[in-house]
Amino acid sequence: MITLSGKGVFGGIAIGRLSFFHRSAEEISKKSVTDTAAELARFEDARTVAASELKMLYETALCKIDEESAAIFEIHGMMLEDEDYNAEIKRAITEEKVNAEYAVGRVSKIFSEGFEAMDDPYMQARGADIRDISNRLVTILSGKTAEEISTAEGNIVCADDLTPSEAMQLDRDRIAAFVTAKGSASSHTAILSKSMGIPAVLDVGEDLLTLTDGAEAIVDGFSGKVYISPDEETERIMTERLNEERKHRALLEEYKGLENITLDGRRIELFANIQSLCELPAVLSNDAGGIGLFRSEFLYLDRSDFPCEEEQFEVYRTVLEKMKDKKVIIRTLDIGADKQVGYFGLEKEENPALGLRAIRICLTRPEIFLPQLRALLRASVYGRLAVMCPMICSEDELFRVKEMIDRAKSELKEKDIPYSEDTEFGIMIETPAAALISDRLAPYVDFFSIGTNDLTQYTLALDRQNRRLDEFFIPHHEAVMRLIKFTVDNAHSHGKWVGICGELGADIELTEKFLEMGIDELSVSPSYILPLRDKIRKTDLSKKKGKRK
Ligand code: PEP
Ligand code: MG
Predict the structure, then answer these.
(1) What residue owns the CA closest to ligand 1's atom 9?
(2) What average pLDDT does the structure give for the chain?
């Protein structure tokens, strides 16, 4: 067995045989032209044809895939208009008196290599787009038809790289997956793989190209691994996972668009937990009713300085726009404890889980908190935003947070920057203290979201990071259940809604219990939404009540 590793850009397991797509290696020949005006006209004609092909691809992507994929071909249309790119091609034709195909090929190489040499991965990935529009122009100029990717059903398409136009040719109902030797996770080809739902692993390295058509392989789009001629054990594990996935897809077919309602008519919201924008396609494809926990700290991790207000605003706006009229609950910064960030300059603590973390940092460092609050409020006009704060323990903390929000609002008002007054405000109940005074906290919030991960850690005095404590971990501890029930009752007696966004929300063994308690919303990883919907729709709470009487 050979194992190749690359970047998994769309999660999914595929088992099949390799089928290589080789582009014809024909070099573009350099020819001298005497009539440069005619050559320029030929180039202009080719540009017109390319623009109309891209328009058609845009329409096809819009109707068959989604807006995001269609936008790729709109961007290609804009690149085709790029002044520097066109000027350089025209200069080569007029001054060097070379044929248009050659001029396009050479300028394509210079521009794409220029992008690929940049530091920013996003800009690097634009090199592939330049090559794509240039290939299109060269194909039109040489009077050829675009090369087709032909493959038998269930095959795993392999190539050195695939341009977005080539990826668009892939039929998701026919091919099992695709794997490329090069390519980037920020490329438009990666976006297409996600939108089309085709498992894909990119950038596995040149070794891929030494393999041959027909070799048996397994692609794991989740981990970015490709197993060639898999051994028995790998095949067994991966087949099991594939079957799980098929079951999930069948659920999707059956339950997409249906309500989360029990047989006796009790409705509940099923929302998704996310920590980056990359998860949005999964949120939408799993039919989440909204986002119940957006862990905003991802914006602060893996970098060397604070994200500015503008950068945060763009991210929040994007998620709100993508979710359209669905609710998006963004949790304010939850740094500290298990999520340490060097540039915050936090002192080393004996007990970080009980230390300066989350809301405690925000309340003591307004220069960090206020830009986040302003960014959130500014984004609020682009969708249905709700803001929630983690780790609240007391009324005083809650009042201080509310004062900060008022301060952020007045700063925006002073500058005439709009925000929505309808933005809901909630807190996480993830400390026993908050659960036990939830009757006092409820009047000041619109909702509670119970963070069972931390609530369990603090109630059982059990570090959630410490593997050695596994034998003492009781996932459904009665103390935690009682705190949840107490919180739900207090929220409801003040007319507030209450959800669960910790891992227990996804625990099917507890779904019935949570429904009985009156939980209004469960927020879970996107892949748990449909199994939970299945469970809810098969539950009958009235029977259970009847039996008890
Ligand atoms: C929780 O504590 O349950 C929770 C959802 O927050 P996090 O896991 O991010 O601490
Ligand atoms: Mg927590």
Answers:
(1) 295
(2) 92
Residues sharing a CB contact under 8 Å with residue 88, sequence separation 6 or more, in sequence order? 107, 110, 111
331 inside domain: yes
Distance CA 264, CA 196 (A): 37
Cα separation, 155 vs 165, in Å, equals 19
Which range of residues forms the domain containing residue 120? 36-141
* 532 CB neighbour count, 10 Å cutoff: 20
Of 37-46, 87-96, 124-133, 395-404, least confident by mean pLDDT is 124-133
40 burial type by CB count under 10 A (0-12 exposed, 13-18 middle, 19+ buried): middle
238, part of any domain: no
Write out the two tokens for 22. 């080789």
If we measure between CA atoms, which residue out of 391, 292, 288 comes closest to residue 335? 391
Residue ranges of E strands in 160-279? 177-180, 200-202, 216-220, 225-228, 269-274
Q: What is d(CA 534, CA 395) in angstroms, rounded to the nearest whole number?
A: 39
Query: What's the CATH number where 71 sits?
Result: 1.10.274.10
The predicted structure's pLDDT at residue 282: 82
Give me the catalytic one of 188, 248, 393, 492: 188
CB 452 less than 6 A from any atom of ligand 1: yes
Q: Which ligand is nearest to the CA of 329?
A: 1
Residue 258 falls within a domain, yes or no? no
13-20 and 200-202: which strand pairing? Answer: unpaired
Query: Cα–Cα distance between 307 and 48 in angstroms, integer?
Result: 42
CB of 36 sitting under 6 A from ligand 1: no
Which of 141, 157, 184 lies at the terminal end of a domain, its last residue? 141
Going by their DSSP bridges, the two strands 447-450 and 424-429 should be labelled as parallel
Rounded to an integer, what distance in angstroms lies between the CA atom of residue 69 and that of residue 189?
A: 9
Q: Taking a C-beta distance cutoff of 8 angstroms, is the pair 16, 238 a contact?
A: no
Choice between 61 and 521, residue whose per-residue pLDDT is larger: 521
The DSSP call for residue 307 is: P
Ligand 1 centroid from CA 465, angstroms = 12
Enumerate residues with CB within 5 Å of ligand 2 (an ion). 430, 451, 454
The total of other beta-carbon atoms located within 10 Å of residue 149's CB is 19
Q: Which residue has better confidence, 496 or 466? A: 496
For ligand 1, atom 1: residue with the closest CA: 451
CA neighbor of 178 nearest in space, from 188, 193, 168, 164: 193
Helix ranges restricted to H, 159-231? 164-169, 188-196
Q: Is residue 183 part of a domain?
A: yes
- pLDDT of 39 reads 95
Model confidence at 549: pLDDT above 70: no
Tell whether the model's pLDDT for residue 400 goes beyond 90: yes
